[in-house]
Structures are given as C-alpha cells and as structure tokens.
Specification:
GO terms for molecular function: nickel cation binding; unfolded protein binding. The chain is an alpha+beta fold and 155 residues long. It has helices at 25-28, 84-96, 114-122, and strands at 2-8, 19-23, 29-36, 42-52, 58-61, 66-71, 74-80, 101-104, 107-111, 126-132, 144-147, 150-153.
C-alpha cells in the first residue's frame, strides 16, 4: 500500500494536486489511518502525531503524488452578536462549555446542537443553521496554534 507520512501545509506547496480527498472535521483529525482519495487512490496516512488537516493542505504520498485536502461541508450553527462586546460574551459562554468553534468574519461557527442554539438565542445571539466547512481553533492545551491560516508547533 502507498504510504503518506508528510503533510504540506496550505500555501506551502504548488499545484495542481494529483487528486483530492474530501473529509469533514472529525475525519480530518488523524494520525494513522487507511484512506481512499476522491479519485480512488488507496493509501496509509502515517503521521508522527495526530493533527487536524485543513482545506488546502496536501498529503504527500510515497510515490510523489499529492492529494489535496478538501473540507466537507457539515451542519453547523452560525452565531453573531449585536456588537463586538456581545460577541465576546457569547464566545466566553461557548469556551466555558469547551465547545470547538471557528471564529471568522465577525461570526462563530460551531457544531449544530439544538440545546446550545437555544442557550445562545437566550443570550440574544443571532443563530442560523448553515452547511459549511468546519476548521475549529486549537484548544489552549493543543500542541500548536494557528497564525494566518496555518499551524506552528512549539517544542
């Protein structure tokens, strides 16, 4: 079986890729797993440590081909506040519950959950159901953090 032990981060490689693989957020958080690309290339992903693959990353196969990661849209909540202060209060409530979220363009994206949606509406948030790619922020205790759309680990 073809192996893949290297990820080329979004913006750090030039295409076109030889194929794509479309995965939701849970499927993109991997270390070692047999995978099949959208075009049928079977390979073993075998990374030194688990990581979240993000849209635009490329999986480098042992035969030299690149498989571009595509984020599969999934059911999410889009949350907006009345103003910046209100949005900060909402983010605090989400963080206090340790819910993975993505913050972008003045809104918060998180997994669809009717209990959480009702809580946020009770706080005065504007909540809408959407289908979108989900790239949540790393937690405070994760091995790396994001800068400008890519991740840096620290020893």
């Amino acid at each position: 079986m073809i192996e893949a032990g290297e990820i080329r981060e979004r913006g750090q490689w030039q295409g076109p890729a030889d194929d794509t693989i479309t995965l939701d957020e849970a499927q993109r958080h991997r270390r070692r797993m047999a995978m099949v690309s959208d075009g049928g290339i079977a390979f073993l992903l075998d990374l030194p440590e688990a990581r979240l693959l993000v849209e635009g990353d490329a999986i480098a196969l042992s035969d030299g081909r690149l498989v571009e990661v595509k984020a599969k849209p999934e059911p999410l909540l889009s949350v907006e506040g009345r103003d910046a202060d209100h949005l900060l209060q909402i983010v605090w409530q989400i963080g206090n519950r340790h819910l993975p979220c993505q913050i972008r363009d003045g809104r918060i994206l998180l997994r669809r959950d009717h209990v959480v949606a009702d809580m946020l509406k009770g706080l005065g948030a504007h909540v809408h159901e959407v289908e979108a790619a989900f790239d949540p922020l790393d937690g405070a205790y994760a091995g790396g953090h994001q800068h400008g759309g890519h991740r840096h680990g620290h020893d």
